Amino acid sequence: MLKKIFIICSLFFFQFSSPQLPGGFVYLNDIIPDIQIELRYLGSNNFTGKPVPGYEAEKIILTKEAALALQKIQLKLENDGYCLKIFDAYRPQRAVNSFIEWARIAKDTLTKAEFYPEKKKSNLFNLGYIATRSGHSRGSTVDLTIIDAESLEEVDMGGSYDFFGERSHHNFMNITERQKANRLYLKSIMSTYGFRPYSEEWWHYTLRNEPYPDTYFNFTIK
Q1: Which residue, of 4, 76, 161, 208, has the fewest CB within 10 Å?
Q2: 38 closest CA partner among 88, 95, 103
Q3: d(C-alpha 28, C-alpha 139), whole Å
Q4: Between 11 and 215, whose confidence is greater?
């Protein structure tokens, strides 16, 4: 009898101590335990200059299909001496809504020099750098780069993450041959394992056969 009570209590504790994800979603570190993470929107090192609503823990959430595809990519990279580093993946719709509100505050240009020095804040939506509906909210889009497996230093891509400008475009030519080769290397591997690139951002990839192509989720990352 005591054993039965203990099991029931343990199950009850597990249910309320572990975040529950919607069906079809997983935590990426459960699939790739050694994945490197720098979840930019959890802190202030992002284009808004502050933590973004909907991000409450440094957890990368993706659909199971996207996570398993990244697992294959990680294995391929490790054979070449590299690893993945993730900046963002699933993004709650409430976070996207906060970007819309941020864009409406014309006087808030705290991060302009770092993230959009050559662009007007009011044009960031029209230029495709921010969207009112983001593929991230469908759960199969990921922002990432590659790092050296030994030093964990980021490979030089000729531009920084979330920079709103032509330098971030895949076809930007005013970078070194090494930087071009690094972008092409990442693009080739991601494409081989089922992801399509976004032309405006070298770091942004979406699973081609994403399981929820028309659904925008809003559950909190925790």
Answers
A1: 4
A2: 88
A3: 12
A4: 215
The amino acid at residue 30 is: D
Answer whether residue 116 shows pLDDT above 50.
yes
CA distance 155 to 182: 7
pLDDT value of residue 19 = 64
Sign of the C-alpha dihedral computed for residues 55, 57, 60 and 61 taken in this order: negative
Round to whole Å and give the CA distance between 186 and 197.
10
Q: How far apart are alpha carbons 28 and 63 in whole angstroms?
A: 9
CA distance 53 to 6: 38
Tokens of residue 68, six digits: 């398993």
| Partners of 142 in the β-ladder | 205
Among all chains, which residue has been given the structure tokens 């505050």? 105
Mean pLDDT of 16-24: 72
What is the pLDDT averaged over residues 107-134?
A: 92
| Residues involved in catalysis | 201
Measured from the Cβ of residue 121, the count of other Cβ atoms closer than 10 Å reads 21
How would residue 131 be classed by pLDDT, with cut points 50, 70 and 90? confident
Residues whose CB is less than 8 angstroms from the CB of residue 92 and which lie 6 or more positions away in sequence, other chains included: 53, 54, 55, 137, 217, 218, 219, 220, 221
